[in-house]
């Protein structure tokens, strides 16, 4: 009995992890996306037309102008704790995706992670951690596909790739429990909504065509969430579905995924 208790304690401590070790792991989990090279097309069609919602229109061609790296997983709770020294999540678990995050809190994590990773020399002084632009998010999620989901159009495959209202009892799995998309990214469909850099626009009329963030003037109160969540049905988990939400939104279905790029990369 004592041996079992000690092993359980060791596993628990190991799951929490040393902050520097967790940041090293985080750095290793970024996937290089290089538009125009190998399997990464330089252009893609963003949004949907007749079958999509108004805010997914008009479908438009985007030319990705610069490489970036995107995290393989949504930010897990042990990494959040290592950077922010707290854990706002409802569904606790060291490798569960962190949730209950406002837009500003997601931005704060990116800023502090940048500082700590520079201090540890895990990234260069001219690199930063940030939220993905909406175009980067959709481009990476599609993984070179032009279908409803990154795995195609067959809803029979949804359970294998996503946590959604049809198969999730609660938001309590570890990241990466489902199958990845074609570029090795996990949980891009379902599990948690993911904040994007862009402020909210009702449709794509006037959207940038170079993959950059679309930021409204003034003090916009809403931003873009992508991907759907464990609370949502299949139609909200598509590669193109958009949710325009107040930046103050905190919910156990909202988290973040990070991008690593050059500071002067126009975002």
What's the CATH first level?
Alpha Beta
Task: Give the beta-strand count.
Answer: 10
Count of helical segments? 6
Q: Give the total of domains.
A: 1
Rg, alpha carbons = 18 Å
Helix and strand sequence:
HHEEEEHHEHHEEEEE
Overall pLDDT: 92
Characterization of this structure:
The protein has 6 helices and 10 strands. The chain is globular and about 50 Å long. It has a single domain, classed as paralog of FGE (formylglycine-generating enzyme). Helix 2 packs across helix 3. The strands form 3 sheets. It has a 4-stranded antiparallel β-sheet.
Label this structure with key terms.
globular, alpha+beta, paralog of FGE (formylglycine-generating enzyme), about 270 residues
Q: In short, what is this structure?
A:
This protein has 6 helices and 10 strands. The protein has helices spanning 2-16, 19-28, 77-84, 103-119, 134-142, 158-161; strands at residues 30-33, 43-46, 60-63, 68-71, 127-130, 193-199, 222-226, 242-246, 254-255, 259-262.
Layout of helices and strands, plus pairs?
Blueprint (H helix, E strand, L loop, with lengths): L1 H15 L2 H10 L1 E4 L9 E4 L13 E4 L4 E4 L5 H8 L18 H17 L7 E4 L3 H9 L15 H4 L31 E7 L22 E5 L15 E5 L7 E2 L3 E4 L5
Parallel strand pairs: 6-9
Antiparallel strand pairs: 1-4, 2-3, 4-10, 5-10, 6-7, 7-8
């Amino acid at each position: 009995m004592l041996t079992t208790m000690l092993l359980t304690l060791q596993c628990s401590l190991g799951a929490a992890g040393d902050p520097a070790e967790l940041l090293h792991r985080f750095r290793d989990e970024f996937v290089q996306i290089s538009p125009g090279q190998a399997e990464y097309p330089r252009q893609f069609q963003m949004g949907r037309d007749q079958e999509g919602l108004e805010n997914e229109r008009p479908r438009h061609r985007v030319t990705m102008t610069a490489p970036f790296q995107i995290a393989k997983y949504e930010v897990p709770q042990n990494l959040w704790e290592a950077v922010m020294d707290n854990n706002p999540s409802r569904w606790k678990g060291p490798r569960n995706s962190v949730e209950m995050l406002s837009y500003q809190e997601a931005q704060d994590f990116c800023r502090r992670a940048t500082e700590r990773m520079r201090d540890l020399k895990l990234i260069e002084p001219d690199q930063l951690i940030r939220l993905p632009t909406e175009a980067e998010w959709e481009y990476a999620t599609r993984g070179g596909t032009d279908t409803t989901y990154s795995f195609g159009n067959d809803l029979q495959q949804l359970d294998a790739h996503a946590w959604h209202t049809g198969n999730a009892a609660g938001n309590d799995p570890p990241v990466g429990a489902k199958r990845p998309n074609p570029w090795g990214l996990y949980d891009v469909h379902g599990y948690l909504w993911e904040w994007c850099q862009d402020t909210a626009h009702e449709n794509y009329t006037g959207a940038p065509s170079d993959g950059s963030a679309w930021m409204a003037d003034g003090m916009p109160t809403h931003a873009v969430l992508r991907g759907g969540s464990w609370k949502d049905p299949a139609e909200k988990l598509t590669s193109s579905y958009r949710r325009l939400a107040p930046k103050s939104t905190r919910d156990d279905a909202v988290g973040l995924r990070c991008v690593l790029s050059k500071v002067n990369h126009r975002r």
